[in-house]
From TrEMBL:
Gene3D superfamilies, A to Z: 3.30.70.20, FAD/NAD(P)-binding domain (3.50.50.60), Jelly Rolls (2.60.120.10)
GO molecular function: 4 iron, 4 sulfur cluster binding; metal ion binding
Entry protein name: 4Fe-4S dicluster domain-containing protein
Domain annotation Cyclic nucleotide-binding: ranges: 371-471, 495-614
Keyword field: 4Fe-4S, Electron transport, Iron, Iron-sulfur, Metal-binding, Transport
Length: 833
């Protein structure tokens, strides 16, 4: 047994190394235990040549070890040199497997059987040794690895990187950096946005995509990995691609077994050895990715054991190093020391009423706001660096209806009033302390749906979109809370009938959010079941088997619900409902929904009316299956064609009837004349089935692809559902690359044309429509090249009379429709009558 130490530090990453350096500087007896044969294993395992960032830039570094942004090799070299120069007591190849004892007399046991005595213990072990594994089946011979050491080792391979956080992005960029390696690199992101990556990495990845060096698969997950191949679930269905190697960088979770077992008591439970309640290092929740409960001085629930770094929920290097410095100061009795981010947070809280310290404000916000209850005190500090807090007097406007905005608001004290009638400010609904508002902008990107004012003096936290997405990805409890609130409000809005929040609690308790692949059914004709399905995002198509063939009945957009027939009338399912695109649905238990109907006669009546209308469609199809079968088949085929062309996610789409179109191009000319001489429409492009043509024109998707990764946040949804690009566009081209339908172009605005009358009577100007490049060049200011910007259909928002393309069509061939109105077999019934 070795002599005892004042401090034993486990893990020599940035946090542990900084702690050991501070102990050495203060002359405290210490030992730094590292399980490998080198310092800072996490950064050591970074890919060769990786640029290590020093963020956040506004945070002052407080450490005896130097650190600035630079190459991995330089950072490690500096730390090795300084650790030796500062006489840090390092013990390599010393993996700790157990900690027993109590404060002042801890015993650490290594895997080699050595024991070390210490008065205090600092856990700085990080989480990288416990990576999240791929969840899909992996076939024999398939190569899946969870780390990339040297991108230069791989030549002429098809490589898929799963995970689009910082590590995944950096791996993908490293593998695609040298064109002579001839690697084909793809990166898989399960969402449309990069919620956990740094801005610099996101911009570098998008630049690589634009240059054709990396393929980004958004809203995609892997479903199977086999030797030489990988299968994806994309928003548009299944995709199979060549794949020699998968590099999975999907984050990691704390090593709970080891940490919870520190100084724990054990008992027999169900024939197994288990940790006794209230002993060991406790975590904030049972979620796999939760973090230990810690005091403001980093002390865990076991006195004398401190936790810092990534294991404490702080993954950034500067945060970790500051914590390493601070915790040793605390252990040495310097309780007056304030964290390095204290001045930044003090400035944020300066405008709030009452005299509270930063820690008191952080705890006030954490405990009062429901979605923040599961956030650790240390995570709260990082969270507030990316958020704002404000005090609003009673009656003060928070935001107005139709304002743009994607931030989320949380109410820490007081309440706000939602103006539910846009024409009558006196009709309001309160939202109380602890809840949130603004989630519609966060989830869908739509403009604010209502005007909201402070109902009384209120303290509000405004959470930026990036901070909200990061919060949901790192704190499962926060994601669950936001999901429940947004689900409740969606149901209240959709069901109406005078329902209140308390009416829905039983329904919400059993509700389940399901992700549905494109083409996957949520209801199958002929099966049993009475659950109700609410379409949260995406869309569904309804089909019925007639004469052995599936017949398209209707299209259901987000905000619809289905499944009520068997719940009310009994029997088996009468139709199949499948996802038109990758969608999210809320499954409501039939029994709970039946109780809700019984308790609310008005809702029951509305639901019965919906059921009756759907039964009428079924009866119409059955009655016409012989005499009208050809027409039904044709309409069904057309409807399926339109869904395949992306109509399944559209809110407004331009269609052209080729039987009526005479090819005059008036639609394109009118579009150009209404939009600075640049047409947003390509009539001839696009696909045709039978007589129905889908030209290249914006579909105004329910969840627009173009909104993802817009640096100036220049893309918005207007009051009538139109997706438009404002004047802050910087011409980066991200929207053009992200749009799967090719409806966005990058171009510069041409010179102003003479009026139509000047052209008609005097021959001045290029005439109606988009001017030729030759004319634009000849009439541009010499030597001045106008910057390009993104050009797309905006549905002629603000122009009297509506879309110019429709108004200019002399034969009525061009129509703009909402898919839910057009894609229904009920149109046949109306047309026949």
């Amino acid at each position: 047994m070795s002599d005892g130490f004042r401090i034993a530090i486990i893990g020599s990453g940035p946090a542990g190394l900084s702690a050991a350096a501070r102990a050495a500087e203060l002359g405290l007896s210490h030992v730094l235990l590292e399980k490998t044969d080198h310092l800072s294993d996490t950064i050591y395992k970074y890919q060769k040549g990786k640029h290590v960032m020093a963020t956040p830039s506004q945070l002052v570094l407080r450490s005896d070890m130097d650190f600035e942004a630079g190459k991995r090799e330089k950072v490690l070299g500096t730390w090795d040199e300084q650790a030796a120069g500062r006489k840090v007591n390092v013990k390599l190849n010393a993996e700790v497997k157990a900690i027993t004892g109590a404060a002042g007399a801890f015993v650490l046991t290594t895997t080699r059987g050595e024991t070390i005595n210490a008065e205090t213990v600092i856990l700085a072990i990080g989480t990288q040794g416990n990576p999240n594994l791929v969840r899909c089946p992996v076939g024999e011979g398939a190569v899946v690895q969870y780390q990339l050491d040297d991108p230069g080792e791989y030549i002429d391979e098809h490589i898929v990187v799963i995970g689009a956080g910082d590590a995944g992005i950096e791996n993908a960029l490293g593998l695609a950096a040298d064109p002579e390696q001839r690697n084909t690199v793809s990166i898989v992101n399960r969402s449309a946005e990069f919620s956990t990556a740094k801005d610099a990495n996101i911009k570098a990845l998008l630049a690589a995509e634009a240059a054709g060096r990396v393929t980004i698969l958004r809203e995609t997950t892997s479903s199977a990995i086999d030797k030489g191949w990988i299968t994806f679930d994309t928003r548009d269905g299944e995709l199979k691609a060549r794949c020699d190697r998968v590099i999975a960088r999907m984050g990691s979770a704390p090593p709970r077994g080891f940490v919870e077992g520190c100084c724990a008591s054990f008992e027999e439970k169900d024939g197994k050895k288990a940790i006794a309640a209230g002993t060991g290092v406790q975590f904030s929740s049972a979620d796999r990715v939760s973090y230990p409960k810690l005091s403001p001085t980093f002390e865990s629930t076991v006195p004398g054991i401190f936790v810092i770094g990534a294991l404490a929920g702080y993954p950034l290097i500067k945060h970790c190093m500051n914590q390493g410095y601070d915790v040793v100061e605390f252990i040495n009795g310097n309780t007056a020391l304030k964290p390095a981010d204290e001045p930044i947070l003090e400035a944020k809280f300066a405008g709030l009423p009452g005299r509270k310290s930063v820690n008191e404000w952080l705890e006030f916000l954490r405990s009062n706001v429901g979605i923040l209850n599961g956030v650790s005190p240390l995570q709260m500090r990082e969270f507030m660096l990316d958020s704002e807090v404000r005090f609003s007097r009673a009656g003060e406007m928070i935001f107005e209806r139709l304002e743009t905005g994607s931030s989320l608001f949380a109410i820490a004290s007081g309440s706000v009033l939602v103006q539910v009638d846009k024409d009558d400010p006196s009709i309001t609904v309160p939202i109380e302390t602890g809840s949130i508002f603004g989630e519609v902008g966060l989830i869908s990107g739509r403009r604010r749906g209502a005007t909201i004012r402070a109902g009384e003096d209120a303290i509000l936290v405004e959470i930026s979109r990036s901070a909200a997405l990061k919060l949901q990805s790192q704190v499962p409890a926060a994601k669950a809370a936001i999901t429940r609130i947004s689900t409740e409000r969606q149901l209240l809005q959709m069901l109406g009938s005078g329902l209140k929040s308390e009416d829905l609690q039983d329904v919400l308790d059993g509700a389940e959010i399901l992700t549905v692949k494109a083409g996957q059914p949520i209801i199958t004709e002929g099966e049993e079941g009475n659950d109700i399905y609410v379409i949260r995002s995406g869309s569904m198509v309804v089909e019925k088997t007639v004469g052995g063939k599936p017949v398209f009945l209707s299209y259901l957009p987000a905000g619809s619900y289905v499944g009520e027939m068997t719940l009310i009338a009994g029997g088996r399912r009468t139709a199949t409902v499948r996802a038109a695109i990758k969608s999210e649905v809320i499954r409501l238990q039939g029994a709970a929904f039946a109780k809700l109907l019984d308790a609310n006669p008005r809702l029951k009546q509305n639901t019965q009316q919906l059921m009756a209308s759907r039964q009428d469609v079924n009866a119409f199809i059955e009655a016409k299956k012989d005499s009208f079968s050809g027409v039904v088949d044709m309409y069904s085929n057309v409807a399926n064609f339109l869904v395949d062309q992306g109509i399944g996610e559209a809110t407004d789409v331009l269609l052209i009837d080729e039987n009526l179109c005479v090819g005059c191009d008036n639609c394109e000319k009118a579009c150009a004349d209404s939009h600075d001489g640049l047409s947003r429409l390509d009539r001839e492009a696009g696909r045709t089935y039978a007589h129905l043509h889908v030209p290249t024109s914006c579909r105004h998707c329910e969840h627009p692809h173009c909104m993802a990764d817009c640096p100036p946040n220049a893309i918005h949804r207007g009051p009538d559902g139109e997706v438009f690009i404002d004047e802050t566009c910087i011409g980066c081209g991200n929207c053009q690359r992200n749009c799967p339908y090719g409806v966005i172009r990058m171009d510069s605005v041409p010179p102003k044309k003479p009026s139509l009358l000047s052209w008609l009577f005097l021959g001045l100007g290029p005439g109606p429509g988009e001017p030729s490049k030759k004319w634009s060049y000849a009439h541009s200011e010499p030597g001045v090249e106008k910057p390009k910007k993104a050009i797309k259909c905006d549905m002629c928002a603000g122009i009297e009379g509506g879309p110019a393309c429709v108004r200019a069509c002399p034969t009525g061939a061009a129509i703009r429709v909402a898919p839910e109105d057009f894609l229904t077999v009920a149109r046949l019934e109306r047309e026949e009558s």
